[in-house]
Amino acid sequence: MLYLLPAYLSENSPIEYFAPSIKDIIMNVDHYFVENEKTARKVIKFFAPEKKQPELKLFLLDKYSETADLKEAQKLMKEGVDFGLLSEAGLPCIGDPGNIMVGWSHNNNIKVIPVNGPSSFVLALIASGFNGQQFSFHGYLPIDKEKKKKEIQNLENVVNKTGFTQIFMETPYRNNQLLEDLVKFLNPNTKLCIAANINDPEAELIQTKTISDWKKNKPELHKIPAVFLIGK
Hints:
Layout: E1 2-5, H1 21-28, E2 31-34, H2 37-47, E3 57-60, H3 71-78, E4 83-86, H4 99-107, E5 112-114, H5 120-128, E6 135-140, H6 145-162, E7 165-169, H7 175-185, E8 191-196, E9 205-210, H8 211-216, E10 226-231
Parallel strand pairs: 1-4, 1-5, 2-3, 2-4, 6-7
Antiparallel strand pairs: 7-10, 8-9, 8-10
């Protein structure tokens, strides 16, 4: 089986936010596909402190991975070894390359089991006050300045024409620059929701304001996990 396991969005997330079954799965599974080994070990320790870390066998699955790079893991799965799949934060396969092994599993009759947990963009969407019936998640915007400007303006046009909420992210160390670009390129009356430090009881920030209001008081978002939404 391939278990799609949630990771916390914040290290300060209360354990009560998560299903007890996650610990049971981790205690019984030693093999994992992970986006980042250090993060994965911390997440596993968070859910199951008793799990013996030396027993873990971690296989790197990042944006550069291809199924051909994972032949050892695939052989083990075909022999009946259960695996877990962990993202760096939230649910796997959203904003990360976990779908590579999920697709392979379907093609090879490996049962895929999604385990309930937090998704940053879904939590941001339901807390934004925007349209939750029709929306698009775009992942990361282009790094190139001109391409980013064009994409931001395209997203705003989609919202104005359709009312569909537009959701996107940025690498945390570039959040402040993205916010500067948003307030620069979007219409002053356009509504923007910023959802940062989601699930952190002490530091969570989720607010929806017009661009003109954000210009007056921009939050400090450097190296803070955040989701951005444009909507009505």
